[in-house]
Amino acid sequence: MSTNDMHQEIRDAVSKMCLKFDNKYWQNCDEKDLYPTDFVKELTISGFLASLIPEKYGGAGLPLSAGAVILEEIHKSGGNAAACHAQMYTMGTILRHGSEKQKSNFLPKIASGDLRLQAFGVTEPNSGSDTLSLKTTAVFNGEKYIINGQKIWTSRAEHSDLLLLLARTKPLEEVKKKTEGLSVFLIDMRDHIGTSLTIKPVKTMMNHSTTEMFFENLLVSPDNLIGDCNDGFKYILSGMNAERILISSECIGDAKWFLKMATDYSKDRKVFNRPIGQNQGIQFPIAKAYSKMRAAELMLWSAINLFDEGKNPGEEANLAKLLCSEASWEAAEMCIQTYGGFGFAKEYNIERKYREARLYQVAPVSTNMILSYIAEHVLNLPRSY
Ligand SMILES: Cc1cc2nc3c(=O)[nH]c(=O)nc-3n(C[C@H](O)[C@H](O)[C@H](O)COP(=O)(O)OP(=O)(O)OC[C@H]3O[C@@H](n4cnc5c(N)ncnc54)[C@H](O)[C@@H]3O)c2cc1C
Q1: How many domains does the chain have?
Q2: From the alpha carbon of 367, which atom of ligand 1 is closest?
Q3: Residue numbers annotated as active site
Q4: Quick one: average pLDDT of 151-169?
Q5: Which domain holds residue 67?
Q6: Is residue 384 part of a domain?
Q7: What is the pLDDT at residue 1?
Q8: Closest residue to atom 49 of ligand 1, CA basis
Q9: How far away, in angstroms, is 130 Cα from ligand 1 center?
């Protein structure tokens, strides 16, 4: 089967699955701050959530392009894959850097849904975008690592068994470069919640099940360490292209959803005895949003193709994240304007998707950090921070 046929087959199957999770379903989750458990279960049972896990470990062993297509279709249907998308890229950290024992212990259970790996603890309240200054420590006492500190915005932690955690194992004063001395741990949170681990939900403008986490003398064995001690930042960096590409695919799905909603509505809605879509004041913003979406999509596929060829598309993945998140936001703005007052009515879902689409210019990486990356690493301008 050609790659295009494979993508089309996936698109058809995912969009069919998404019919079970209509706007009413997402609206209800949004209004009640519910985790979309049934949706995540269905995505797991259907095998889509494990599409990137190699067959040897119980997944479908598909390339990143398949993951991108799956996430795009979910968002294009009006859904929101943020409830579980992280598993697609955090799993890659175990796959690339974990020991064979860790891979065979965890990946088949993640693929089958017996274990959820949804939580990714990097950001901290006091360091924010300056990841290398994070304060959470993991101190080895000869037998165990003792973890102390705090994370914020650890999304889905209440709905995950496992947590991938970045902590400092060597004090900043003792390392030559700030990138050294950080380590990645895979932690089964069920062993610690209520004793050495406290998770508190953080309410946000959209339904995102995000939390803050407090670690108080949490003990883990060296078996929980992924790869080599003090090399963890490299492992996190190695997953960033995949993360940016997958999130960009969601943005393209969102943009396509807004475009469809706006074109359909502007043909139907009659004001002054004609469809509003007959007015260029309504048509042009739709056409403009479409153009921006298509351009961003081309950059995204350039990143995906390079990634799947085994290259390191840092430039393309960052550009895709920048352009796709901006394209989805422009489409969101256009759509709410096209709907007029009804855009604000919960019933129409525009305001929900509008709130959801805004996130991607801040998380998982803020637009300014991407611009800094392009300035420094692509254009060779001086480092700004
Ligand atoms: C809903 C949600 C879910 C999230 N989920 C996760 C998660 O699961 N795991 C996780 O680890 N993190 C998560 N995050 C955190 C997210 O990655 C951060 O919010 C993001 O990286 C920005 O960090 P910050 O919020 O601390 O902003 P800050 O670092 O405080 O920055 C604030 C603003 O200043 C800008 N800024 C800062 N320094 C510079 C500079 N040198 N040059 C130019 N501009 C600068 C930033 O770009 C930003 O616009 C989530 C965030 C949200 C809101």
Answers
A1: 3
A2: 47
A3: 243
A4: 98
A5: 3-112
A6: no
A7: 86
A8: 366
A9: 9
